[in-house]
Amino acid sequence: MADPIDDSTDQGAPVAPAALAEPTDLTGSSGPEVDLGRRRFFRQFAGEIIQTAATMAGAAQALQRASAEAAGAILDPDGGSALAGLQAEFAGEPAPRGFRTPFREDGDVLYLIDQRHLPDALVEYDCRSAGEVAFAIREMIVRGAPAIGQVAAIGLAMTAAKFVDSRPYARRATLLGAANALRVSRPTAVNLAWAVDRLMARYMALGDLSEDGLAIATAMREEADAIVFEATTDHSRLAAFGYEALPPQTDVPLRILTHCNTGPLACGMFGTALGVVQIAHNAERPIHVWVDETRPYLQGARLTAWELAQAGVPHTLIPDVAAGHLMSRGEVDVVLVGADRVVANGDTANKVGTYTLAVLAARHGVPFYVCAPTSSVDLATPDGAGIPIEERKAEEVLSFRGVRIAPPDTQVRNPSFDVTPAELITGIVTEEGVIRGPFEHGLADAVASAKARRAASVSPFVAQGTD
Amino acid sequence: MADPIDDSTDQGAPVAPAALAEPTDLTGSSGPEVDLGRRRFFRQFAGEIIQTAATMAGAAQALQRASAEAAGAILDPDGGSALAGLQAEFAGEPAPRGFRTPFREDGDVLYLIDQRHLPDALVEYDCRSAGEVAFAIREMIVRGAPAIGQVAAIGLAMTAAKFVDSRPYARRATLLGAANALRVSRPTAVNLAWAVDRLMARYMALGDLSEDGLAIATAMREEADAIVFEATTDHSRLAAFGYEALPPQTDVPLRILTHCNTGPLACGMFGTALGVVQIAHNAERPIHVWVDETRPYLQGARLTAWELAQAGVPHTLIPDVAAGHLMSRGEVDVVLVGADRVVANGDTANKVGTYTLAVLAARHGVPFYVCAPTSSVDLATPDGAGIPIEERKAEEVLSFRGVRIAPPDTQVRNPSFDVTPAELITGIVTEEGVIRGPFEHGLADAVASAKARRAASVSPFVAQGTD
After folding, report:
1. Is the model more confident about B85 or about B225?
2. Cα–Cα distance between A279 and A358 in angstroms, integer?
3. Is B319 in contact with A352 (Cβ distance < 8 A)?
């Protein structure tokens, strides 16, 4: 059901960042309200939440494809320095500090941060078509289910753009083949097929043998931008609600413990648990993050530590086994984790090790928050007993990067997830607000509220395309 | 205070294996009872507890130095095949299966299993003097505080044997220098200085400028053999008591979860928590061991998994973070761990991660036993708040065997131990029996009982030397 490698990040169907205190409805139907809403969004985007040059540039690249107005709002007055900062970084000069999006666009090139090289080197991998994006997904250049959905959509839109002048049959064969290549590049990531299906539905709606290649390419590009926009919106709303739920300020930095990787690298712009960290950092609240290294695949050590270092967030890496010691010494104020699946009663499946953190947090009276968009909520499963636990390959435990750490024939048990019972969860942070136990009604209400909000809204990108 | 690398093994001042049901007093003062006691011990040693060729050979090598009778009892009737098996193994033929002692003697050579090469290769490292043993200790060829004490004693005895014909002043300079080299080779291992001091006290008792090099070498060799004998006795008694405390037999193998490495490699002949496993396996009780990999130094993956594989004990390696999942699924029947220090109220310091296991075990009603000889009991410290927690270097967490797993400048917190409060401990298994909470009186009684037993006893080796 999830990204087979970094599957503890949410699989949120992606949606608009908002002011910290109160997520704003950023979308309208049409008319001057739309423009006003859009302007507010972009101003908040630029001025309050996205504080760093690199992130701003990434956001601008994605957004400017659909809206010169949007790009202008983001890039002005700080836009010039943002692009300059990004260029300086890749020229070896001191890099701007901030959370990085896993991808950026420049002209007709999609640049991915090659996550295979992290944390050793920051290398970009460039893609110009759906086929190249499918390869990048398969090779783990990009991982994290929400991020995968977004780059797949952009890749498919790039292929449509290349074939504006093709004959309808050739275009159809190409787009169907490209969509299939993307779908099979990571079969367990639900966001991937979902994103591809959305773009292909826009294509089919125009007639699959339509002569108008430009209209097709434009529609598919709009849909890709909408997917990125929605993910950004949902995750930023979630992060803003999570920020409000943090324990009150004291005279020492708030000590947040997190597990696995739930940041922009996996999610696009904000992340879930790490999105809350990002908002807190950008709001200049003093924080210090304990980063669980997250054996066996070490997402915490390799990715979360890297993301926090890039963003300049004070953090300390710990072996997973040290979390209990820190809690027993009163050195953890709050635990923030992501979720792979939250079922109807609030029981939550997440990266293995999460359950242990919840048990420890309960013993020590430390608030334990699950950060998950409503797209990760599965109301059809009544409780955690109904969640299947994927077992992953032994090699992840027996060796790392080719270095053997155990006898080669050793039998291994490598569950990818565990289930945290609802009774141990202080709150579930969604893009609709923070839900507290008992969770049944709150989760159902949040899912309904999200659905209603999306049904009522049209993304500014799609709206503009049909203006 | 402990071996800086593998310090979760007990630091037991090393003492006689016994029948499984009831540890026997193996030592007497003198006369025919001594011989009878010795014969019973060796027969039990050979026939009931040490079941495998390699282990028998190791035991025999250590023991035969002091007692031809002892060696004969062990090696006959299976002794021939034992040595043949060991030779076959190193000639590349199928090896005999069994727990391995970390050292064996052959003539005037002490062979250590080079633990730096585990689990990749079984390589022996040969030592002929205290200086070579000091090097082996410093280079982590041998680790585990109890094992270090034993090999240091043998090394010092070997140097004394080389200098039987030296002039007194030269001998004194050599022995003082050798003792010092051993003491500084691993300053935190209390057993090391303790063992060296015992041998040097025997030397001084004969007069440090005595002309009788043979008497000095003989006395020091006796003391070294006594140290090995005592460690073997203590750990075997502990293991037998622990075996009796295991949950009752059901129709499935008993599922034991253990942490770090507490086996013969670290302890000499039995080990503490893994000593209980060894006794259960040799008694042919069906068991299955969950082996925590034990980040950051991976003693479980590298050493415990290897030891259990060599011995043919069914086992499965797990990332530390998976223990909670297994307990939540009812797949763990008992937790057995070692201890670095048990204080007066029963609070126990052990390898980091132990506390988390105790919290999980308590939540799931799984018995949690600490296996520690009385030499690890510190009655002078009232509770766990008085136990200092050593922080180890960041590099252990940032990389493994030269492979970097996190950004190089990442700040790390790497506590070596944590403290498990007495309330979470089902029982403390010592060589004097299993103590149950509240622990104050039981621990004090066990310490007194061990002291009285040792005061009343003379090891058969020392007894024989003064016969």
Report:
1. B225
2. 23
3. yes
